[in-house]
Design a protein that fits this description.
Four copies of one chain form a homotetramer.
Chain A (H helix, E strand, L loop, with lengths): L1 E8 L11 H5 L4 E5 L7 H14 L2 E5 L17 H19 L6 E5 L2 H9 L1 H14 L4 E4 L4 H8 L4 E6 L23 H12 L2 E3 L5 E3 L4 E3 L7 H14 L3 E2 L6
Parallel strand pairs in A: 1-2, 1-9, 1-10, 2-3, 3-4, 4-5, 5-6, 6-9
Antiparallel strand pairs in A: 7-8
Helix pairs in contact in A: 2-3, 3-5, 4-5, 5-6, 7-8
């Protein structure tokens, strides 16, 4: 039983640092690398691609809105074609830096507000899927199970990795509780680990205590929370103890 | 006798337009496309790659400093490794957009202050050459004949296209007269055409009237001058009348 | 009977030019100057403030979202406090440049998507009004009559200038027809002039032919349309022929 | 005997944090606030102006090059007039945010590469001094003693605060040893404190052990080094023990 553990990385910019890339590269199996628009820059991308290769971590693009100040977390309405090319640009840029280590990009996951908007917006979801498909039809498209992202992946013939979140509470309909709701972010490493194992086993316990079937291929741990490294480490250990083999998505 | 005619293109950004891309695509044989840092954006890059393909114009990357306000014309001192990755990022991004039309990138030419600095600075020249070589060792590297750019191309085993300028006065040492010197920009279409034919024939008459041997593979016309289209058109006609076949650089 | 004619200006950035500032400064009575976030830069702001002073044109700030690529036309959801400080920043910056000519800022008008969003969104409208009030409680706040912008101005004790649009069709409810609707932008100088005179007289004829009461203090002509100068010139002549005295808003 | 202790602050941007603003505000007497170009944003500037007021810390503008990626540390050649307006823009923007707390700006200190370039470049130094003088001729201009910055201040009739550095080695000619030289940054709190007391007493011991006369009005502690808070705290204690009264520059 394989499961992938992914984290967003490379979110600094110039003199700014963010997150815990070095430690997390020793724990996760897939890295979603910011591509210079909401965060990230060429040097950071180069270094992460090289380190991911060294440690056998799967390399992925993590494109977002062109909104550095808002760190890609602001909801932005824009033309779907412009968005599509923005995504293709970012994936291409990461390919350029990944050429140094000969480490091919394996997956693409939209960042922040774009991820959330595209999960519900057919136009945005298809724009991203078209960009991914045009660049490389073998790339794995990562997103929320059952969302417009999954539909767009299927429409364009892309492999889709269903993503679960170790450190976020779920609503009864399978969506994530908004961050603004108290308690919706799970900061306790043990609690996150327990949810990770449950998700890997195909279910989740929602905020109301309901048990929900929920198939996932990859589990996300957030990289920029203060406890990120402890949570990721605890999640990995629990998954291994539960008998799961951790491996980059699509590596089966 | 083949000669290439190149122009910088795609220099707008968002709502901003600049230059005369549409008209020039019908005249030149190689397009140097801005890659989003000193100018250019993903949509513009996509559209130019598609139009270049339709018209048989050779597609090239035109990377510059990360300086949109200064349009890449400000002299900036930076770490050579950071610069190298910045260049690789931009070339990769254009490859991402060129994937839409299946039009491969054929050449790379540095933009503005970066071109001028790298012509004299071994560190900068080698940074660009390393980026080009890493992304695709078959890319043609464009630059001033005899400059550090040419030396870096040779050092890295890259094909080098020696560039001449139709609309700029030359000094006796083969360098360009600075723009700040009155008369250094040739705005008259007939004069530019005459210089183009002379350059294509392997010589140039300098500002002092001296005759200089000067071998070139590609001739640049500037795209953002008011008379750009007339100059380019006049240059092309004169070259054809003089018996030159216009073809993208590297096209046998 | 006084009426003000305003236009958005200073919308270039670095090497990019946009609009027809020079010509329009000879026609309009109020200039809304972009403040560097959706367009505009320090040099452009300085020069416009100086030229506005020379020509007796009222100087105003035209703050927008921090979205240069989108030219402030993309709808962006953000925290109202952050927005408020963003506005204060931009007004302060223009004050800094206006210090050169000793030309005080007289009014503030939100730009693009921010104008449209704030017209309907109480939170955004109050954020802008708070920023204006904090910087200088004597500044005139410009906006759509009857909108949340007007309510926010009244709540904060700011003078409000009700704005009409010479070159846009109105719906029966007094709102502007979306630009996406064919014919919603009036490009014919004579038609724009006729609408301007009607608006100055306190009414407008809507897209359905209905006659609507509509009191305005200032009339906007758009500066970046190809026919902008002709439209503005025609509007000004028609207003003068109809007996209106053109004067900057608030000049009693 | 009064002495001022200053630190660069507010150097974050959007989701990025940098430095130790909260702790340093309890130690220093003057805050140099980044103004949004090399770092800083409107919300950060607002909050710092408010907190500086609460704690009796003197508020200053810390303008830099428009180079967020390079954090204002890259050497950039640009037109002096453009630079001047860039500086005026940034000071004006901080004034806009400082209006919230009614805390007037007391001083201006150039940031990073701009500080170093202007110390030696008459054109740059005068550009900054003109901007400062135009905005408010009572602002104190901070810079290296004996540099072009001091000459420009005198030429424009600005009060000048001579700055010393607690945590940097000096050369025999009174200039700072480049950061690239090993040992040029003093990370040890006790050593920095000793140098601070010596500087406050009008001398410094250089890298070669020579004793140099060196009059200063304000002492800088760097805010973004890991040991910044310990160094600043140690410097303050040592100055107080040596009998100096710490007070914002210009406070009589």
């Amino acid at each position: 039983m394989n499961i992938d553990l992914n984290a967003d990385m490379g979110e600094g910019f110039g003199a700014y640092r963010k997150g815990h890339d070095e430690e997390l590269l020793g724990i996760v199996t897939s890295a979603n690398v910011a591509c210079g628009f909401h965060g990230g820059d060429a040097t950071i991308m180069h270094n992460l691609a090289a380190h991911a290769k060294e440690r056998g971590v799967g390399l992925g693009a993590h494109p977002g809105f062109n909104d550095l100040w808002g760190f890609g977390r602001r909801t932005i309405q824009m033309n779907a074609r412009d968005l599509e090319y923005l995504i293709a640009y970012q994936i291409g840029a990461l390919q350029g830096l990944a050429a140094y280590s000969g480490s091919p990009i394996r997956h693409v996951k939209a960042h922040g507000a774009l991820y959330n908007m595209a999960a519900k917006d057919e136009g945005y979801a298809n724009a991203i899927a078209r960009a991914v498909h045009t660049i490389d039809a073998k790339l794995i498209f990562v997103g929320l199970p059952g969302s417009e992202l999954q539909k767009a992946a299927e429409k364009h013939g892309l492999a889709f990795a269903r993503e679960g979140f170790c450190d976020r509470l779920y609503s009864d309909d399978g969506s994530l509780m908004p961050r603004s709701v108290a308690g919706s972010v799970i900061g306790d490493p043990a609690a996150a680990a327990a949810q990770a194992v449950r998700l890997a086993n195909g279910e989740v316990i929602t905020a109301t205590g309901a048990r929900l079937k929920f198939q996932v291929d990859t589990l996300c741990v957030h990289g920029d929370e203060p406890a990120a490294v402890k949570v990721a480490s605890s999640v990995r250990s629990a998954l291994e103890e539960a008998g799961f083999a951790l491996a980059p998505m699509g590596s089966a």
